[in-house]
């Protein structure tokens, strides 16, 4: 367990300064700047992204009627991929695929894809499901558009898009919360009795936002590494580009390596790219940003990323306990965090997901803790996800699994004594260390050197900032993947 912590709550100036050359074409702001510098009209930027997203493997040279100045600018300073998939690992049950991604300067991160289907979603209940009256109300989704480009469109286009969005919302609104279970928590335990989703399989990508992490959460493999560097927006988006070669991605969770709100601008830009209807067009509610509670950024997120889901990694019901598990809580105290959460919800009107790693022996998972947590969260529009600690995954850490029955008892107290929406996570992909907090350990926990020869990985996810979903369907998918994935087809580990 890590005892010394370097809290880096907001300041992102520490760590390795990185300037990519060439830059990633998926870095929206950088591309905009390049267009501006050569006098190319900005309107061609979304046209290019629309083409690249619709035609994986194509380049800006293939975009119809693309200005020569823009092509020259991109040729001079940008690449379709600045990252390479070094290794693709697939879990034995086929549900999880882990991508080891090498950055341009040799640093490495991991992205995890988990795939869920309808049957898996409703399995694994540990007690009878709650009655329909006890189920959380479905939330209304939000639009996918930022509004900044709506003025560019004609009224007819807007109407058509509105109809399409409404249709999609009609299809999906009932399942917003279910998607979260699929994406982040897993079980249908709290979904029993609800209609089954008819959309078939859906995949979730868990992305990393930093190499290492400064927050030092004591249960987290990434937290033991310290902070090395921020990823650029383009490097974050490239994880999605690579993952699309593995599976169709419907959800993205910023729960991989790093505290996303410590790399705020890159995360904001990447989220914009992922959710804008001209680009990847993911529904905002299906993109989840996780944080241990960087309060100023959390409130900024409410304004900058409207409609995007927030997951708060709480892990303790009191300030005293929390600062021993999540050291950054010394800077962002629990009372201020809960007030910020209230303000966030006042501004966004969105349900917030709360991550709670159940750490034994009795660290934060006794019935007394459950009552404290229930009292803290009672009356709030939250969904608590209990994550039982699995010591097999991180044997070097001084935690144990919760005692038998402790998680179920904890759940019952929250749900039935305090009316707090709550579910229990079942891990996926454990045999490839694709579950919470393990990725870095498998590769030795060292950060690769800048020359790319340092070996090991910077990948890794914390119990809250972690986990993803999806599987590698078959080799044909890899063959249709972008170059970075395709060339690694031989590295697939089939469990
Ligand atoms: S749990 Fe998240 S915030 Fe905490 S150290 Fe791990 S990656 Fe960082």
Structure description:
It holds the Pfam family Radical_SAM. InterPro entries: Aldolase_TIM, Methyltransferase_A, rSAM, rSAM_sf. The chain contains 16 helices and 15 strands. The protein has two domains: 91 residues, no CATH class; 366 residues, Alpha-Beta Barrel (TIM Barrel). It is elongated.
CATH superfamily of the largest domain: Aldolase class I
Shape: elongated
**Proportion of helical residues:** 25-40%
Number of strands: 15
Oligomer: single chain
Task: Please sum up the structure shown.
With 495 residues, the protein is α/β, with parallel strands linked by helices.
Task: Offer a few descriptive terms.
495 residues, TIM Barrel, two-stranded parallel ribbon, 16 helices, 15 strands, disordered N terminus, disordered C terminus, binds iron/sulfur cluster
């Amino acid at each position: 367990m890590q005892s010394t912590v370097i809290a880096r709550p907001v300041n992102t100036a520490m760590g390795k300064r990185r300037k990519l050359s060439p830059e990633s074409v998926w870095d929206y702001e950088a591309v905009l700047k390049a267009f501006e510098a050569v006098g190319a009209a900005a309107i061609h930027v979304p046209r290019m992204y629309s083409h690249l997203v619709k035609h994986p493997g194509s380049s800006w040279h293939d975009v119809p009627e693309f200005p020569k100045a823009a092509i020259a600018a991109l040729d001079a300073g940008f690449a379709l991929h600045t990252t390479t998939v070094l290794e693709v690992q697939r879990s034995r049950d086929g549900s999880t695929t882990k991508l080891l991604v090498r950055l341009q300067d040799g640093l490495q991160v991991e992205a995890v894809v988990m795939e869920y289907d309808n049957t898996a979603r409703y399995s694994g209940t540990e007690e009878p499901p709650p009655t329909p009256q006890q189920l959380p109300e479905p939330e209304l989704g939000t639009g996918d558009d930022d509004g900044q480009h709506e003025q560019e469109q004609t009224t007819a286009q807007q109407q058509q898009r509105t109809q399409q969005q409404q249709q999609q919302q009609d299809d999906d609104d009932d399942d917003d919360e279910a998607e979260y279970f699929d994406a982040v928590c897993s079980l249908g335990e709290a979904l029993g009795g609800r209609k089954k989703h008819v959309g078939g399989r859906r995949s979730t990508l868990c992305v990393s936002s930093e190499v290492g992490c400064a927050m030092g959460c004591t249960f987290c493999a990434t937290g033991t590494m310290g902070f090395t560097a921020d990823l650029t927006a383009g490097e974050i988006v490239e994880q999605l580009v690579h993952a699309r070669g593995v599976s169709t991605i419907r959800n993205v969770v910023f729960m991989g390596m790093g505290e996303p709100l410590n790399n705020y601008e890159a995360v904001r830009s990447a989220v914009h790219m992922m959710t804008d209807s001209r680009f990847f067009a993911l529904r905002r509610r299906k993109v989840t940003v996780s944080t241990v509670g960087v309060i100023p950024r959390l409130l900024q997120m409410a304004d900058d990323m409207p409609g995007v889901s927030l997951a708060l990694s709480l892990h303790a019901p009191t300030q005293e306990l929390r600062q021993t598990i999540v050291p950054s809580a010394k800077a962002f105290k629990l009372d201020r965090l809960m007030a910020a959460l209230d303000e966030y919800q006042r501004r966004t009107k969105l349900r917030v997901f709360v991550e709670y790693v159940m750490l034994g022996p009795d660290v934060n998972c006794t019935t007394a803790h459950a009552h404290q947590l229930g009292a803290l969260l009672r009356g709030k529009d939250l969904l608590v996800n209990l994550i039982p600690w699995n010591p097999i995954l991180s044997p070097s850490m001084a935690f144990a699994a919760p005692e038998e029955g402790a998680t179920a008892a904890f759940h019952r107290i929250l749900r039935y004594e305090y009316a707090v929406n709550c579910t229990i996570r079942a891990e996926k992909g454990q045999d490839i260390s694709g579950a919470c907090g393990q990725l870095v350990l498998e590769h030795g926990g060292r950060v690769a050197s800048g020359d790319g020869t340092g070996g090991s990985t910077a990948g890794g996810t914390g119990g809250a900032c972690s986990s993803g979903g999806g599987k590698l369907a078959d080799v044909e998918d890899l063959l249709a993947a972008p170059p970075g994935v395709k060339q690694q087809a031989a590295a697939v580990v089939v469990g």
